Amino acid sequence: MQDDRLAKIVSFCRRRGFVFGGSEIYGGLSSIWDYGPLGASLKKRIKDIWWKEYVEKRDDIVGLDSAIIMNENVFVASGHLKGFIDLLVDCLGCKKRFRVDKLEQTGTSLYRCPACGGEIDTIRSKPRKFNLMLRTNMSATEDDPQYAYLRPETAQGIFVNFLNVLNTTHKKLPFGIAQIGKAYRNEVTTGSFIFRMKEFEQMEIEYFTKPSEAADSYKKWIEDRYSFYVDKMGIKKENLRLREHSSDELAHYARNCTDLEYNFPFSAKGESGSAGGWSELEGIADRGDYDLKCHSEVSKKDLSCFNEKGERFIPYVIEPSAGVDRTFFAVICDAYCEEEVRGRLRVVLKVKPALAPYTIAIFPLLKNRPEVVKLAKKIFSDIKDEVNSVYDDTAAIGKLYRRQDEIGTPFCVTVDLESLKDNNVTIRERDTMQQERIGFDKVQEYIKEKLG
Ligand code: ATP
């Protein structure tokens, strides 16, 4: 059932131009995906809402846009060069490679292969360590390589700029630095669509506090981020949960960590092993002073602040680290509905209007009547600077409605022959499918009122 829903959603995303396979005409590239026209729009809206919420609406957080390629020493300090490792094992039957920690264990050294269903014996096929970082050569010649790394998280760009930001913004603790950007990990995946990619995007905040205020801040961030998914992304509460890491699961640097999980449509064979669909959407960690301390030691730069007594200390950091792609995936899964309307299947993407690629679609009822087309185009051109709109006259009205329902457009406006006489148009709501006649100059007002 879950696999069925996942397959439907993947096919929907491709069919409607939300997500395509990377380099597809050359056979694709494993775990690399491209966002199509509608996907790019929806993804941008997610990022814009996050940026507005945390950078523009708060005076204790500033934004940053740091480089993807970073000096090797950044990752010596952060521990990624040594410790960012997955234990991988090959299935001798189907020759596919998997992360040991994601496999279903069936005996002391035995695991089930999620691809062919055969047995993987870790005595015969020894697990090997793989560093997840992607390396690039910055040198002009191959014989004298100068390696640098594509960041595996945006966070390191924030830590290495901590002093720059402090010195240029004169912020006082507590304050945060927020960043949205690409990150790269050489992941091994098993058909989890955009849940686990080699190139993905993160929205991260490093929130620096006094050590005595860290525990309180950590709690607030968990509440804040949970509400963000419910109130701003429209995710249903029943599909969202918090999971605190047990002490043996905690990364060595973390004092506490809570995952915000979404019930993705994975089967037991999927991402989260036997746990079914619940998988990480975001991690919120209390990282203590680990990061700034490590970077202070390796860079030999003083990354401390003064307390009230004039003593130096290294700030603690709370890190709400979210994935743009996983948020996108969760939004689509949560909103994708199939309904029966008058004996026919209606696919409708019930996303929050603020996330929909288009807010309004405008159609002429009769595309062979130039006056009707002209009025519809005029409404479109009057409204498009203010509201995200699209004009479409490439099919019959029923089909045009269905197309917009599928991509989540909350309102459709239709211009007909009557409109030429009474200046009224039909406006239709996506979820209720109810239609109303309103003056064409009242469309913007109507939508603003409906959207509150
Ligand atoms: P997982 O346990 O699923 O591998 P993680 O704990 O390694 O995730 P973090 O390092 O905490 O993930 O990264 C923060 C967020 O970045 C994750 O919650 C997720 O939303 C996103 N993310 C991490 N890795 C990937 C990936 N390979 N593809 C897409 N998003 C990712």
Describe the fold and architecture.
- This protein is 31% helix and 29% strand.
- It is of the alpha+beta class and 452 residues long.
- A seven-stranded mixed beta sheet has the order 3-13-14-20-17-16-15, sandwiched between helices. A five-stranded mixed beta sheet has the order 24-23-25-26-27, sandwiched between helices.
- β18 (305-306) and β19 form a beta hairpin.
- α2 crosses α9 and α3 packs across α8 (290-299).
- The model is unreliable at 270-275 (pLDDT under 50).
- Bound molecules: adenosine-5'-triphosphate.
- Residues 153, 185, 187, 196-197, 200, 202, 280-283, 321-323, 325-326 line the site of adenosine-5'-triphosphate.
Please identify which CATH superfamily of the largest domain we are dealing with: Bira Bifunctional Protein, Domain 2
Class derived from helix and strand content: alpha+beta
What strand order characterises the main sheet? Answer: 3-13-14-20-17-16-15
Mean pLDDT value: 93
Number of strands: 27
Residues in helices, as a percent range:
25-40%
Strand residue content: 25-35%
* Individual helix count: 13
Q: Which stretches of 5+ consecutive residues score pLDDT under 50?
A: 270-275
Task: Estimate nothing, just give the exact number of structural domains.
Answer: 2
**Gyration radius from CA atoms, angstroms:** 25 Å
- Overall morphology: globular
State the CATH architecture of the largest domain. 2-Layer Sandwich
* CATH topology category name of the largest domain: BirA Bifunctional Protein, domain 2
Largest sheet: 7 strands, mixed
Question: What is bound: which ligands?
Answer: adenosine-5'-triphosphate
CATH class of the largest domain: Alpha Beta
* Terminal CA distance: 37 Å
